[in-house]
Amino acid sequence: MKMSRVVLVLGFVLIMALYLEAQPLASISSPEDCCFSFFKGKIPPQNILEVKKTGPHCSQQGFIVTTPKFSSLCVHEVAIK
């Protein structure tokens, strides 16, 4: 009976180790790298300090824009032009 418990626990540990190896993006990416809602207005080009593209793992692609007033605004590509 004790041996079957040990085998069961080792089996769970092995499955969890394989599961974590199979998902490398889960440990690298963070929700801060993705946009879930987008700014619909226009941003004057002179106000843009930095532009960072969202990661390929995000459900919605866009850009994270930094301005003097806002540390991170999510916009679609057309809003930057």
Describe what is shown at a glance.
The chain contains three helices and three strands, in the order ααβββα.
Describe this structure in words.
There is one protein chain. By secondary structure, the chain is an alpha+beta fold. It has a single domain (2-80), classed as OB fold (Dihydrolipoamide Acetyltransferase, E2P) (Beta Barrel), CATH 2.40.50. Helices cover 36% and strands 14% of the residues. It has helices at residues 2-21, 24-28, 77-80, and strands spanning 50-53, 63-66, 73-75. Strand 2 and strand 3 (73-75) form a beta hairpin. It starts with a helix and ends with a helix.
Q: What is the rounded Rg? A: 21 Å
CATH topology: OB fold (Dihydrolipoamide Acetyltransferase, E2P)
* Biggest sheet, spatial arrangement of strands: 1-2-3
Structural class: alpha+beta
Report how far apart the termini are: 68 Å
Fraction of residues in helix? 25-40%
Number of helices: 3
Quaternary structure: single chain
Uncertain runs with pLDDT below 50, 5 residues or more? none
How many domains would you count in the coordinates? 1
Signal peptide: 1-22
Domain Chemokine interleukin-8-like: 31-79
Pfam families: IL8
Organism: Pangasianodon hypophthalmus (Striped catfish)
How do the helices and strands line up, and which of them pair or pack?
Elements: H1 2-21, H2 24-28, E1 50-53, E2 63-66, E3 73-75, H3 77-80
Antiparallel strand pairs: 1-2, 2-3
